[in-house]
Fold this protein.
Amino acid sequence: MFARSFVCSCLIAVAVLTAPLSQAVARGAPDSFADLADKLLPTVVSIATSQTLKPGNAQPGLPKLPPGSPLTDLFKDFLEPQKAAPRHVTSLGTGFIIDPSGLIVTNNHVIEDAEHITATLNDGTVLQAKLIGRDEKTDLALLKVTPKKPLPAAKFGDSDHARVGDWVIAIGNPFGLGSTVTAGIVSARNRDIQAGPYDEFIQTDAPINRGNSGGPLFDMDGNVVGVNSAIYSPSGGSVGIGFSIPSNLVRDVVAQLRAHGTLQRGWIGVRIQPVTSDLAEGLGLASATGALITDVTPQGPAAKAGIANGDLVTAFDGKTIGDSRALPRFVADTPIGKTVPVDILRKGKKQTMRLTVAKLVDDKPARASSPQKAAPPPPKTQSRLSGLGLSLAPIDNDARAQFKIPGGIQGVLVTDVSPDSTAWEKNIRSGDVIVQVAGQSVRTPADVTQRIEADAKAGKKVELMLVNRGGDLAYIALKLG
C-alpha cells in the first residue's frame, strides 16, 4: 500500500490516449463500447499466484508450575506449542498479452514472491506462466505462457498523446470476478504518488478495484496507453481516482525484460532536489523549473564533465527539464555509454557540458535514516542570528562528538532554531551544518552573519543556504527581513 491510502497489488488505474494518434482532434463519447470491448477482451488475462507460508510462531510455552500441579494438564492442552501446517495463500491480478507467442505484461506486485503463476484466458483456458523478468522500480513484470495456438495480442499506443479529458476503457479482474470492462476519462497526467523514482502516472476516473492491477488501459483506437497499477482509496474501493503507468515507459521496460530479463539504466552520479518558488527567487530564476544539483559523486560521469554542486540542470540530451522528476527518467532511459549534452545554469550563466552516461549499479540510499534522538547540549560558544531564528556555533571536536558530525564535513553548526522562525518552517534543525551561504563556503558563525547582513543591505529578499544533515546536502531558501 502506498502512502496517503494508495492501494496497489489488486487495483486498476485508467489512462487515456487521444483519438487517432495522428490527430489531436477530440472525440465525443461513443454510443457504445461494445465493439471495442469484444475486440480487446481476448487480449486480457486473469493472473493467479500462490505461495506457501511457513508456520508462524507457536503459542507461548507452559508456565513454570510446581511439580505435580493439577494445572499442568490444563495448560498443556491450551498453551503447549502446536505443530502448525504450512498455509497456502493465493492472490489475484490482471495481465495482458503483447505477443501471440504468449508474452504477458502485469504488475510486479501481482507476482512478487509467487511460487506458482497461472494465466486464465478470456475463454477459460488456464495456462502455467513463467516469470521472464521483473522491475521493482516501475512495478512491471513480464510472463510467458505456452499456448497451443497463437494468442490475440494487444498493441502499445503512444501515451504522450493522451490528453486530459480523453475517453479510455480498462479491462481487468476485480475481486476475482473475471473479465470486467469499465470506462472513464483521463483525469490528469504526470502524477507523482511516491511509488518509485520514475513516477509519471496517468490518472483516470474509470472504476477500478482490487484485482485489476496489471491490466491494460486502452484508448478509443484499442491501443494500450497504460498499465493499471494503483488507486487512491480511503475505503479500499474505487472512488474514481486510479493510476496507470504510461505505455511509453512500459514499452521500454518490457523490451529490456524481454531481451535481458533485467533492467539496465543510465547513471550520471548526482543528487538533485526540486526547485521551489523560494529557491527560484534565491537563484534569480524567472520560474521554478529545472533540477538543482545538491551533490556530485566523485569520479562519476557528472563530476568528470565538470558539473558541480549548485548547478541547475535545464536540459538533458536535448530534452527540457521541466521539473526535477524529469531528470532521473531521462537519465535512466539513456543508453549506457552514450555521450550527451547537458545544459546548466551556473551563477546565472548558461553553459553546456558533455558527459558519458554510465550504468546504474545501485541507486539505493547510501545511508538509512536513523530514529531521531534527543538533541545533545549545545556547544558553549554560540552566536545568535536573531533575524532568522538561528543559533550558530563553530564545529570543534566537542561539537563533532555531540552531534556525530564526520570529520569530512566543514561548515557552521546550527545549535538551536526558534519554533516561530522562518528557519523552523523550512525544517532547519539542531545538528544541521550550514556549508554555504549564497554560494560561498562558511566556516564560522561570523561568516554566516556577515554574508546575510551584506545581502540584506543590498536588497536581497531570499538567502540561499546549502545545508548538510547526516551527510545529505540540500539547498534551503530563507526569506530575509
Remarks:
- The two ends are 43 Å apart (CA to CA).
